[in-house]
Amino acid sequence: MTVIESPTPLPIDLDARYMLAREIAQQAGERALQMFRNRAALEVEHKGLQDFVSIADREVEGIVRTAVSEAFPADAFLGEESAAGASATLSSERVVWVVDPIDGTSCFLNGLYAWCVSIGILVDGEPLIGVVFDPNSGDLFHAARGRGAFVGETPLSASPACDVREGLVGVGFSHRLKPEAFMPFLVRLLGDGGMFIRNGSGALMLAYVAAGRLIGYYEPHINSWDCLAGIVLVREAGGTVNDFLANGGLLRGNPIIAAGRALYPALTALIDGRAD
Ligand code: IPD
Ligand code: CA
Ligand code: CA
């Protein structure tokens, strides 16, 4: 009997994808910025409680999706605005681009500056590339596994803080959950002398954790397109992140906990309501 050996999988060109992710985050961000400056003309739809969408989100996702499919037609794509049609087989694809065209839509629509384009790339189920572009500040946060995290050309390091009193903890909450799933954590954080900040863009706040601007970030439920790029950024900046992709996190979302390595155990203890 002839044994047919399974072919060795082709190598993935990470460099080309890393470069493209940075280019299209900036192109898409520039288009989003034009629409932000003319936002009075945008028609806004409700997706759910405190959850909005406009043509800007859809058009910017289209720009990213088209650029990816032209350059890498075999790569899979998971974008917030088209996620409803995502197939459960996505997690077994070799390369998946995980994209939020505008993270911080409420800020965007209300004339606030905390929004960004977020592009993460999973290869064989592992988050390997993360790019977050903030068109208002011009900050391009980017990281690739094993190569460090940067804003522009400047290397990033997560905070060395080991106590919540040493800085600001970013938080996120959406009405996908009941407030009770979140408020006890805030009570404990403040009770321990910590302080929180919520700017409305989980992706941007994770980039700030990588940059050491925030000492940590917690949200009890976040979607993969909000955080996949940020996960790579924080890890490459020397920080720690929970196993977000466990139990179907790619399609269903999960809690996210990210912090400098020294603070991470204390932050998880506060979230769980344990003494550290
Ligand atoms: C939201 C933001 C927010 C986070 C929510 C997300 P959107 O994304 O990242 O900070 O708390 O969980 O849904 O709707 O602005 O793209
Ligand atoms: Ca988002
Ligand atoms: Ca979004």
Describe the structure.
- The strands form three sheets. Strands 3-4-5-6-7-8-9 form a seven-stranded mixed beta sheet, sandwiched between helices. A five-stranded mixed beta sheet has the order 11-10-12-14-13, with helices on both faces.
- The protein is an alpha+beta fold and 276 residues long.
- It contains eight helices and 14 strands.
- It folds into two domains: 14-155, Fructose-1,6-Bisphosphatase, subunit A, domain 1 (Fructose-1,6-Bisphosphatase, Chain A, domain 1); 164-272, D-Maltodextrin-Binding Protein, domain 2, CATH 3.40.190.80.
- The protein is globular.
- It has helices at residues 14-37, 55-71, 105-109, 183-191, 202-210, 224-236, 249-252, 264-272; strands at 44-48, 51-54, 76-79, 95-103, 116-123, 126-134, 139-144, 149-151, 154-155, 168-171, 195-197, 216-222, 240-241, 254-259.
- It is 33% helix and 26% strand.
- The model has no long low-confidence stretch (mean pLDDT 93).
- The chain binds D-MYO-inositol-1-phosphate (IPD) and calcium ion (2 copies).
- D-MYO-inositol-1-phosphate (IPD) is lined by residues 80, 100, 103-106, 172-174, 200-202, 219, 222, 226.
